Amino acid sequence: MSTDVEVLTRCQDTHQLFKIVFKQQDAGTWAAYRVLVPRVQSRAEAAGAGHTTPSGLHVTGMVGTDPTYKGCPFCPSKSFWTCGTCQEFNCWDERLDVVCAWCTHAGRVVGKIDHLRGQAPSAGGPTSRRVPSPPSPPSQRLSTPNLPKLPPRR
What we know:
Blueprint: E1 4-10, E2 17-26, E3 29-38, H1 43-48, E4 57-60, E5 62-65, E6 79-83, E7 89-92, E8 97-99, E9 106-108, E10 115-118, E11 128-131, E12 149-150
Parallel strand pairs: 1-7, 3-5, 6-12
Antiparallel strand pairs: 1-2, 2-3, 3-11, 4-10, 6-7, 8-9
């Protein structure tokens, strides 16, 4: 049985919210493979609608994308990064100098993402719409392993 984790993410260009859904491919390997777009667009509303909770799932391991992952639903970015200050996910167009769409911390991406904080998948329901993604075999390798993170503010 496959384990999925949904991670609330913000578009760097439009600042709109979406969820990246990660599946566990092997022990210690997590791959983004689809997105969900919440019908609510503020973090407080999203938390109230069950989109994210601080006490949600926390998993560790190598993080990357599955070949079926289509990227941000609001801009052309096909990847993502985490902020070292607020720990939130942002879509990423692979520029090295970035500004967090959550906390506005600016810096250069370095290192690797080695954990996910999110929640178990919701049933879809009235709070989100699924953005379809073709199925892929569970043993498929990551197409972009070890995505970067932004170091914390000093």
